[in-house]
């Protein structure tokens, strides 16, 4: 009877596991190996034939200054948006967690930009930078300057995405037991001590989610930049994703573009995994 029950349990677990595994295999594993096959060729993305070139595309990546510049742009953008988004969203969430008149509509106002598409957000802010701010204050558009274009894109992405992290941090704040704060007040703790000793440790799970999600999303940035600048001026805002797109569809170097995409996927997987592991370890420590 025990053996039969064990077999039934195993079969039930496999039944639950199999659909998810099949979806993962079809959506991730199979495309990865198809992409690897293309990356080992000189295919232009159009012709019916492709010649095997081995690891030549990967050697080209190793010596490519364009790849390094695009990777630096992606890292710069990802770090800026991760720090700005999490600091701002946590500060707003702390404010919105207090009771005040009009709190509901204020929360909705902060979340509303998240409902807009990234392309629409880019068009709105492109208009503001180019036509409104320049007319009001006589400043040149941040998106037209090689030194300020990435911070300008960060502003657009921040406005368009900060609402998601606000919701996550708010959920974490509302789940913190009030008795912890009451006990801290009795012990004479001030606002900073309560924040550092209670709020931050209790918010670590939310912090892990928000930081990882924002960083990975920042590294994959494509739509906002493509709509706002197209990677310009020059190549000053060309992210890795735009570099891949141009190689695939503008330069007709599908083999090389696919190789860049595979390298980028591996870097994302390793970086995201390490970051999650570090932050999860911090959750255990506090």
From TrEMBL:
Q: Name the principal localization, coarsely classed.
A: membrane
Q: Which GO terms describe its cellular component?
A: plasma membrane
The reply to whether Cell membrane figures as a keyword in the UniProt entry is yes
Membrane-spanning parts? 12-34, 75-96, 108-129, 149-171, 202-219, 255-275
* Topological relation to the membrane, as annotated: Multi-pass membrane protein
Question: Coiled coil located at which positions?
Answer: none
Boundaries of each ABC transmembrane type-1 domain copy? Answer: 71-275
PROSITE patterns cross-referenced by the UniProt entry: ABC_TM1
Single Gene Ontology BP term? Answer: transmembrane transport
Pfam families linked:
BPD_transp_1
Compartments (UniProt record): Cell membrane
Instruction: Tell me which CDD domains the record gives.
Output: TM_PBP2
Keywords assigned: Cell membrane, Membrane, Transmembrane, Transmembrane helix, Transport
Instruction: Give the similarity note.
Output: Belongs to the binding-protein-dependent transport system permease family.
Which PANTHER family does its entry note?
Answer: ABC TRANSPORTER PERMEASE PROTEIN, INNER MEMBRANE ABC TRANSPORTER PERMEASE PROTEIN YCJO
Q: What is this protein called?
A: Sugar ABC transporter permease
Q: Which organism is it from?
A: Cohnella fermenti
């Amino acid at each position: 009877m025990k053996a039969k029950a064990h077999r039934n349990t195993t079969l039930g677990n496999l039944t639950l596991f199999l659909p998810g595994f099949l979806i993962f295999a079809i959506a991730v594993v199979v495309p990865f190996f198809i992409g690897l096959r293309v990356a080992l060729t000189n295919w232009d993305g159009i012709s019916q034939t492709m010649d095997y070139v081995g690891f030549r595309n990967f050697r080209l990546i190793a010596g490519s200054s364009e790849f390094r510049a695009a990777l630096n742009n992606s890292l710069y953008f990802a770090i800026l948006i991760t720090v700005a988004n999490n600091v701002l969203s946590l500060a707003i969430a702390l404010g919105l967690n207090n009771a005040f008149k009009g709190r509901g509509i204020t929360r909705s106002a902060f979340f509303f930009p998240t409902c807009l598409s990234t392309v629409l957000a880019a068009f709105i802010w492109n208009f503001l930078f180019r036509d409104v701010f320049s007319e009001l204050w006589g400043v040149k558009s941040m998106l037209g300057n090689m030194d300020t274009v990435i911070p300008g894109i960060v502003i657009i992405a921040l406005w368009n995405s900060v609402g998601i992290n606000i919701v996550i941090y708010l959920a974490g704040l509302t789940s913190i037991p009030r008795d912890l704060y009451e006990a801290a007040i009795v012990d004479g703790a001030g606002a900073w001590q309560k924040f550092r000793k209670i709020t931050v440790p209790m918010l670590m799970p939310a912090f892990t989610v928000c930081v990882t999600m924002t960083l990975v999303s920042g590294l994959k940035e494509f739509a906002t930049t493509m709509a706002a600048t197209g990677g310009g001026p020059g190549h000053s805002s060309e992210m890795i994703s735009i570099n891949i797109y141009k190689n695939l569809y503008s330069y007709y170097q599908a083999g090389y573009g696919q190789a860049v995409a595979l390298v980028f996927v591996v870097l994302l997987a390793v970086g995201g995994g390490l970051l999650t592991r570090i932050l999860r370890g911090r959750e255990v420590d506090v």
